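Archive entry: two folds, one per protein. Generate the first.
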Amino acid sequence: LLIKAVVSTQSTGTIRLNRPEKFNALTWAMYTAIGETLNAAAENPSVKVAVITGTGKWYCSGNDLSNFTKNMPAGGPQEMASNGQRVLNDFCDAMIKFPKPLVAAVNGPAIGIPVTTLGLCDLVYCTDNATFKTPFVSLGQSPEGCSSFIFPRTFGFAKANEMLLTERQITAQEACDGGLVTRIFTEDRFRDEVDKVVKHMASLPPQSMRISKGLIRQEVTEKLLEVNKRECEVLRERWLSDECMTAIMNFLNRKK
């Protein structure tokens, strides 16, 4: 299974990215499975809190770039880009619309969309060895996960631009100081500490939790859906550009 979805006896729904040999890189099927799992958890009364985390030493290394080169559909690049736009839009929409607390347990390095979508989570905990990088420009792409809207409002424009335009990798401490991460735990205590927080949240009155989250998010939910739609439209255009295709092929050739 590329993701493992488990509902614990403590009313916690955990989505675990389960592709450690590829640093939990996301395939199109994984995006769809995560979105569908979140939508199901939203309707499941036994789930009070949802957690996203990774298997192994990495949280997630981002989009698997073989998404763009393997199993090309009959409609060619145009169909591939349209399918990718829809999958990514639905994935981020599921996070934006999720009505219960959504916790990211960042167990190691994160690159690309697992970084940008942290702003769509309600609480973000990471290990002290976690790092965060968004290398979109070097791959001929553009920001997603609503990061074009959330990052400047989290870090300020200067720091957000350094991440999104110069691709500077930041540390766990920088992410926490900037407001993207809630709290940092040492690697040996990480799982236990996150479990404590999540179990406490799951013990609280669920309707009060949902209502409180709704109030906190009410001013931005529609805006985030709008931003996500536009980012995905732009990404579709980028994926079809010669600049992007060349950058992706160069990257994959360097990995061989």
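Generate the second and append.
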Amino acid sequence: MMSVTVASAPSRCKLRCAATLLPPSPSSALDLPIVWHLAFHPAGTYLAVCRGLSSANGTPYYDTTPDVVDRSSPATAVTSPSIDVYSAGKNDVGWLHALSLPTPSVHSRTVRCASFSSSGRWIAAAGFDGIVSIWSFPGAECVAALEGHESEVKSVCWRGDRTVATCGRDKTVWVWERFDDSDGGEPEFECVAVLSGHAGDVKTIVFASDGVLL
């Protein structure tokens, strides 16, 4: 899938298409990258869309190579890893592109998953390059790049505004805690637990609503 459809439910049994969200500036249908993941802001007023790589001729490219993407190449220049954020328009205008996180400045491979913190102040992004980036919102500034996974990170989720959990192809789950700089600088994140024991990839992760179970 290369576009995003936002549907609304005016009644219990009917859905209607509210918007179809395309990348901000596709020059042609062949430029549409794969949509990997969607994440709503807690207030429901923003939607983050993770778009990954596809080849120049429209054939899906699943990013199985560990090599760094050459963004100067015409084949990948329009499909670099990205997170585009859309805002809900007013007066039935629809969903509008609000901003794009400059993820290629941090990630060299597909951004597989994104998650808003419970306050909506932060976005965590999980990449196939093994990096988890933390972004301020709506400032769109990368405040931390978490490294430790030995392979692709496939999912990320928050508990509140301080705890991040990640999982991936290395069969592990990592739990990170946020510590604020007493001088008002950028926050720091520290791994507080690594959970192992799975025999295969851990592809998704979520906290229970009470935050007690993972």
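Annotation attached to the second fold: The CA atoms of residues 52 and 110 lie 5 Å apart. Confidence is low (pLDDT under 50) at residues 55-79.
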